[in-house]
């Protein structure tokens, strides 16, 4: 039976760019098909990332560059939910009481090459040595340098419209730029795409191509209302990807990428972590042929470290509000051995914890989907976490340390 929303009006937060507004209106249009009598008011909000167009993303860090101001309004209950490009939503952590309440069907997750309109070439291979490729993504730069070492890579910031204007101005010196295919498709600019880069050359960003809707964790009404939008294959893939990124502790300054495939039963996750110039990297994959089998039954192929602080509570579909679920990581290196997950994990209790009578819905890598089997989501999360652990065993830790020593984080004026 379809859920009946408790309110007749919801306020929807969004960034102000043309693409953000198109995505938000698309989500509202889909909701109206299920709830024709509910009204949705769009609230436009400018983020730090929209205001600062000069600092490279790698120098800003993974601190909610495109989400912070929206989350402040959400926390203050000035809006009820926010439509995001999921790749913009940090995977390492979300503010207290924030979750992803729905993930819609993923568009094309690949990257695209946009050749400057004043050039005749049609692909990266055709561009002469020294050509300037516009991108602020360390993920794209590190992987592209492996295949196109003779090209140069130049910071380009701004929304899609701004970047297109920069590319079209010969005086700015961009010969091409790299963007997400999905963004250009949603803007009806597919005819401007010169080349699509296949994942065997450049793996894509966590959540790329998917729309995620952020809301308050204690707002069960909104979470259940949004649940009609969940696309199970996309949710499963994105939970695994976000768990991978959270465990690897990646962000805008860390070149990391994935390729995830889910066939309705089994899941395969490919992941890579590189240093900034692509000269060092670790890459591997992990599979689970049947996500419906509960991990409480030991399966040697898919084991996760007991000391990993990403493990979830298993307290009968709910998590208690404001209980501190984080566990301190062991002082010794816990990435040397993969250990089985305990069959059950008792909810953490604390005399100082504030417990409310209304239980919170369980989440997986900050994704809360009430209409998808929890065993499937739990196993997807474990796949992502275990892939990250494998990469750490292969030397990801030294690559991460190298990056952090070489990328200064510049404080952003708000």
UniProtKB/TrEMBL annotation:
Q: Does the keyword Transferase apply?
A: yes
Domain Porphobilinogen deaminase C-terminal, residue spans:
236-289
Q: Where is this region: Disordered?
A: 323-353
Q: Which residues form the signal peptide?
A: none
- The UniProt regions of compositional bias labelled Polar residues, in chain numbering, are 342-353
- Tell whether Transferase is among the UniProt keywords: yes
One Pfam entry for this protein is Porphobil_deam
Gene3D superfamilies from the UniProt entry = Periplasmic binding protein-like II, Porphobilinogen deaminase, C-terminal domain
Biological process terms from the Gene Ontology for this record are: heme biosynthetic process
| Porphobilinogen deaminase N-terminal domain mapped to chain residues | 11-222
Quote one Gene Ontology molecular function term: hydroxymethylbilane synthase activity
Identify the pathway: Porphyrin-containing compound metabolism; protoporphyrin-IX biosynthesis; coproporphyrinogen-III from 5-aminolevulinate: step 2/4
Q: Look up the record and name the cofactor or cofactors this protein needs.
A: dipyrromethane
Arranged from A to Z, the UniProt key words for this protein are: Porphyrin biosynthesis, Transferase
Instruction: Tell me its EC number(s), please.
Output: 2.5.1.61
Q: Which family does it belong to?
A: Belongs to the HMBS family.
Q: Check the record and name the PANTHER family matching this protein.
A: PORPHOBILINOGEN DEAMINASE
State what this protein does.
Tetrapolymerization of the monopyrrole PBG into the hydroxymethylbilane pre-uroporphyrinogen in several discrete steps.
Q: What is this protein called?
A: hydroxymethylbilane synthase
Q: Which organism is it from?
A: Rotaria magnacalcarata
């Amino acid at each position: 039976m379809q859920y009946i929303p408790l309110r007749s009006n919801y306020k929807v937060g969004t960034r102000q760019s043309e693409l953000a507004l198109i995505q938000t209106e698309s989500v509202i249009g889909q909701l109206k098909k299920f709830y024709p009598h509910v009204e949705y008011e769009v609230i436009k909000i400018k983020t730090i990332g929209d205001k600062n167009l000069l600092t490279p993303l790698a120098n800003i860090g993974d601190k909610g560059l495109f989400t912070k101001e929206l989350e402040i309004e959400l926390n203050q209950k000035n809006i009820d939910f926010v439509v995001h490009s999921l790749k913009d939503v940090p995977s390492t952590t979300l503010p207290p009481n924030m979750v992803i309440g729905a993930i819609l069907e993923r568009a094309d997750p690949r990257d695209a090459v946009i050749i400057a309109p004043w050039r005749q070439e049609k692909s990266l291979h055709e561009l002469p040595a020294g050509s300037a490729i516009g991108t602020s993504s360390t993920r794209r730069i590190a992987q592209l340098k492996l295949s196109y070492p003779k090209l140069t890579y130049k910071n380009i910031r701004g929304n899609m419209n701004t970047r297109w204007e920069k590319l079209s101005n010969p005086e700015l010196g961009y010969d091409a730029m790299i963007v997400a295919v999905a963004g250009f498709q949603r803007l009806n600019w597919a005819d401007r795409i010169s080349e699509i880069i296949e994942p065997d050359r450049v793996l894509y960003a966590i959540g790329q191509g998917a729309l995620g809707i952020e809301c308050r964790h204690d707002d069960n009404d909104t979470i259940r209302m949004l649940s009609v939008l969940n696309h199970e294959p996309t949710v499963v893939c994105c939970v695994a990807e976000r768990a991978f990124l959270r465990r690897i502790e990646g962000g805008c300054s860390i070149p990391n990428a994935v390729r995830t495939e889910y066939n309705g039963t089994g899941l395969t996750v490919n992941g890579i972590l590189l240093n900034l110039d692509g000269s060092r990297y670790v890459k591997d994959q992990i599979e689970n042929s049947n996500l419906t089998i509960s991990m409480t039954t030991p399966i040697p192929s898919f084991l996760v470290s007991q000391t990993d602080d990403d493990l979830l509570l298993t307290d009968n579909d709910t998590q208690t509000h404001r209980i501190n679920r984080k566990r301190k990581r062991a002082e010794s290196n816990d990435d040397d051995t993969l250990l089985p997950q305990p069959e059950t994990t008792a909810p953490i209790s604390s005399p100082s914890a504030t417990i409310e009578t209304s239980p919170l819905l369980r989440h997986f890598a900050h994704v809360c989907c009430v209409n998808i089997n929890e065993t499937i989501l739990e196993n997807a999360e474990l796949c992502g976490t275990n892939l990250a652990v494998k990469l750490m065993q292969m030397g990801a830790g030294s690559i991460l340390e190298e990056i952090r020593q070489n990328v200064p984080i510049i404080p952003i004026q708000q």
